[in-house]
């Protein structure tokens, strides 16, 4: 999922959570938001690791 899609999913889940009157539904939506945020963070870390490995090279 790209950044744009993750932002859209997060925004939609936030809007639905605000309007929800059901506690279980709200809890699910808040979990979706947290998962999207964590996925974004993990993708960022993975990209940084990949970049670091690409530039690292082998030392003799």
Number of strands: 0
Task: Note the beta-strand portion.
Answer: under 5%
Spatial shape: elongated
Tally of individual helices: 2
What labels describe this entry?
60 residues; mainly alpha; elongated
Reconstruct the topology from this structure:
Elements: H1 3-19, H2 23-56
What do these coordinates show?
By secondary structure, the protein is mostly helical. The protein has two helices and no strands. It has helices at 3-19, 23-56. Helix 1 (3-19) packs antiparallel against helix 2 (23-56). It starts with a helix and ends with a helix. The relative contact order is 0.12. The model has no long low-confidence stretch (mean pLDDT 88).
């Amino acid at each position: 999922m790209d950044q744009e899609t993750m932002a859209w999913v997060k925004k939609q889940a936030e809007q639905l959570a605000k309007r929800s009157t059901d506690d279980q539904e709200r809890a699910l939506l808040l979990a979706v938001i947290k998962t999207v945020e964590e996925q974004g963070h993990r993708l960022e870390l993975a990209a940084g690791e990949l970049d670091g490995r690409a530039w690292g090279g082998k030392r003799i």
